[in-house]
Amino acid sequence: MKCPYCGSKETEVVETRDSEDLETIRRRRSCLTCDKRFTTYERVENISLVVIKKDGRREQFNRDKLRSGIIRSCEKTKVSMEDIERIVTETERELRNADSVEVDSKKIGQMVAARLKKIDKVAYIRFSSVFKRFVDVEDFEKEVKRLIK
User: Fold this and answer.
1) 138/144 Cα distance (integer angstroms)
2) Neighbour count for residue 19 (Cβ, 10 Å)
3) Which of 29, 30, 84, 90 is the most buried (most CB within 10 A)?
């Protein structure tokens, strides 16, 4: 495993833990060159999921892309990286347990939004504004009113 700090390939595993869902192994590693520590996650590679975009295009499901979108929504909120990783893992697991390997991007957005709504309302509104393509202030206002009810 390559060190994200210095690029050295000389690393060692310091600690290994199974995740709560037992689908991911978390490994704490130490670089033998720069002595910094970092975390890696290991999971079984599954059958490819295909995301159907709003315009009809199809693309392969990408955990990193989903995580990145959630991280942007959660900036300057109380949502931790563990929460974000859990949302990504739970969403992917639910998608893989579905009957089809093809899924609408809208469904993924709904799944993530529902999970964020339980954790942090601001992150939920931010995510929803992109996912639901809010155009003006009235769209935000309507969503906030629904959230308050």
Assistant:
1) 10
2) 15
3) 84
